[in-house]
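This follows on from our talk about sequence and fold. Go ahead and set the record down below:
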Amino acid sequence: MKIAQDAEMRMLDQMAADFAAKELVEAREDHDRYPFLPLFEDVLAKAHEVGFFTLLLPEAAGGGEQGISALSLILDDICRSDASLGGIIFTTALAHEMILKAKSEALLPPVASGDHSYREALIACPSFDNPGEAGNLLQAKGKGKKHMLSGSIEYVVLAGLCGRALLPAKVEGDESYSLFLVDLTSPGVEVSEPVFSLGLHACPACDLELKGVEATLVGRQGEGRAYFDAAVDKMFLAAAAMATGIMKGSFTEAFEYSLQRHQGGWEIINWSEVRMLLASLAIKCKVADMLLSEACRAAEADEAGWGLGARAAAIHVQELACDATTDGIQLLGGNGYMEDYGQEKRFRDAKQIQSLLGLTPMKRLDYIRRIREGEKPW
């Protein structure tokens, strides 16, 4: 990312790039076979040791107290090699950000790197949904901070991997939903087998069934949507960073392949059709990188309208990634569809992350709603 300019950001950039090269590339194919092969828990433990799961948390909670530029930078680097780890980082960061927006960080125990298991740092949540668009929410009964939750909720990311989940539920009589922190080891919690998804196979999700499970209210009752909306402006940038990383990984693999693959007596990069496709892919990567960098800069500076810009950047970059990874497959010919290379996985992952924070058509409708309500489009 262009944003990586000062010494601290350059150090983070290099650390994430080295981590991805060492821990993700060689075993990427095996990692992607989860749940039919074991999860890459050794990699997750190392990711926790270097602080990837606690970037946004304040230092008092064992976090790195970093901004969205740092999170986006790391997700960009990681997702060039394997977006599954990026999905795990994203989901936990989303949960942490909503808790911080609710001013409920006291609910988080210290999770300093090296002192606790990575499972204690992770928090499950339905990161592919916008709870405000859900027709069927969990039901909550109770008063004050303690409530009892009942009902079912689908595709809760990391639910089979960690001990806590941040879940939306509606208290009878309230207009909007509330957020609750749930201990997934509590009696009455049923966790399904991992749901096999299109992409991000090693970022596991499960369905949950809750039967009178005690939960802790996060923030104020009925304010869940406000906390979600406040958090996701920033998290849209993280989602865009994941898509940008996937695109860059696709270009790098296609470019290197075109230099090594011989056909007709010379490297295929000498074919004009190949160069045209490579140029198109490189341009998409550059546009995405510039767009993400500028959107992160605006967010860090708290410029007027940065939230709407973050959403626009994410929607556009995620669509670019779907087109770019299609080109990435084509550039490898038949090999582009083989699991031995990373291109077919990047194609699936790019499609999967389009649904982060809700379906794309709903994001577009929400975007124009905000403009109609008075936000300036530029």
